[in-house]
Amino acid sequence: MEATKTSAAQTLENNLTNLVKRNSELENQMAKLIQICQQVEVNTAMHEAKLVEECDELVEIIRQRKQVIAVKIKESKVMKLRKLAQQIANCRQCLERSSTLITQAEQSLKENDHARFLQTARNVAERWEMLKVGRFSGLHRLTLTSKETDIGD
Question: pTM value?
Fold first, then answer.
């Protein structure tokens, strides 16, 4: 009986040693897992902060680019409107001269004095040629192309 007790005690002692050793390994494993969890938390926080920082930088770059483009669009609009206003003024001036010439031509047709009629008709014809060469020749350039009227270019 004594031998059985000694054998059972030795088996129990071996099992106890193995359990203590296994518990120690589990505690070490658990400590490593806890450390990894903490590192994951730190890394995640760091990556989230970096993401926010980089996104904020991108938003700022986009905001600045938007501002630059908006200024260019406004400048383009001003330039195109000035150009159009000048063209409108040129057309108006050309129309005024043309209307004056038409009135003069109509009045010369009513002229009864032949010499005066010829002189007036010659003046009207000369003024017409000057007007035609000076102003009407540029009328084909007075309009902006569809690309130029597009504010977004």
Answer: 0.56
